[in-house]
Every structure is written in structure tokens, then in C-alpha cells.
């Protein structure tokens, strides 16, 4: 979960916005964008218990699983020479790919419990179309329209 805190004198109250979602949904990117846009302090936090503005970036499970597999492949090959690639056993990469969807299910279940049992007001942003695209320019436009613009509106209303 990524968090940013409003310390801008333009706004007269200290408020906290939380960006939630399972692994690989773009929470960090969105948090950085929103913090820069609103000129607020950015803080990364996984376990804070406060009740403020919550934004849930949600992606359809099958789309997310494909995206996470691709991300694991990209990260296991990024910035490494051939010798260091050999040091990462294929079984480790396979294990990560197997375990990450399980982690995602736990994360999504936790968000659902916050909504259903704790009755948290959560703004759900469905971003599946962002993850279904391959071309960067299409992804960037989908990200702006599907995620960034609605989140800007939510945070602006909240602040």
C-alpha cells in the first residue's frame, strides 16, 4: 500500500490518501504521479490502520496473472549479464510465478474484508484494460484515462 500525506499549505487539513491493490497493479507509479501533481509528501506503507481516502486499483485476475508473469520475466532478465542470469535458477523463477497469484488472492481477500467487514469506503478503479495492452503509447493513454484521471478527481474531492 502506498500512502501520501497532504502537507501543502494550500489545503488547510492534514489528510492521508491510500492506494491499495494486489502486487503488480501500478500502485507506486500512481502514488508518485499523484504526489507530484498535488505537491504532497509520499510515504510507502504496508500496514497502517487509519480511516481516510482509500483508492483500490483492481485488475481482473487472469489479466493480472499474465501481467505478473511477464513482469517476473522482465525483472529476472533486466540489467544482468549472462553469468548472473545463470545464478538465478529457473526453479526460483517458476516458484515466484507460482506463488505470486496466491499472494494476490490473499491481498484481494484482505481488501474485500476491509470493505465488507470493516465497512471502509474504498474507491475502486478497474484497470484491466491498461494491463491488456502491449504497445506503450496505448498503455500510457489507457493509464491516463482509466487510472490517473479518476484518481485525480477522487483525491481532489478528498483534499
UniProtKB/TrEMBL annotation:
User: What family is this protein classified in?
Assistant: Belongs to the IPP transferase family.
Q: Give the GO cellular component terms, alphabetically.
A: mitochondrion
- Give the domain of life: Eukaryota
The protein depicted here goes by the name Uncharacterized protein
| Residues spanning the membrane | 16-36
Single GO biological process annotation from the record? tRNA modification
Q: What SUPFAM superfamilies does this protein map onto?
A: P-loop containing nucleoside triphosphate hydrolases (SSF52540)
Any idea which UniProt keywords this protein has? ATP-binding, Cytokinin biosynthesis, Membrane, Nucleotide-binding, Transferase, Transmembrane, Transmembrane helix
Does the keyword Flavoprotein feature in the UniProt annotation?
no
Alphabetized GO MF terms: ATP binding; tRNA dimethylallyltransferase activity
Amino acid at each position: 500500500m502506498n500512502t501520501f500525506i497532504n502537507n501543502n499549505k494550500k489545503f488547510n487539513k492534514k489528510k492521508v490518501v491510500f492506494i491499495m491493490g494486489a502486487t503488480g497493479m501500478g500502485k507506486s507509479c500512481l502514488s508518485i504521479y499523484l504526489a507530484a501533481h498535488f505537491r504532497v509528501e509520499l510515504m510507502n506503507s504496508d500496514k497502517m490502520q487509519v480511516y481516510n481516502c482509500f483508492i483500490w486499483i483492481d485488475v481482473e485476475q487472469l489479466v493480472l496473472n499474465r501481467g505478473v508473469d511477464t513482469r517476473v520475466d522482465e525483472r529476472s532478465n533486466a540489467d544482468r549479464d549472462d553469468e548472473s542470469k545463470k545464478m538465478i535458477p529457473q526453479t526460483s523463477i517458476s516458484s515466484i510465478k507460482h506463488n505470486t497469484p496466491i499472494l494476490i488472492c490473499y491481498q484481494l481477500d484482505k481488501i474485500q474484508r476491509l470493505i465488507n467487514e470493516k465497512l471502509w469506503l474504498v474507491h475502486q478503479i478497474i484497470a484491466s484494460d491498461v494491463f491488456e495492452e502491449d504497445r506503450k503509447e496505448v498503455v500510457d493513454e489507457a493509464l491516463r484515462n482509466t487510472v490517473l484521471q479518476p484518481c485525480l478527481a477522487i483525491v481532489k474531492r478528498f483534499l
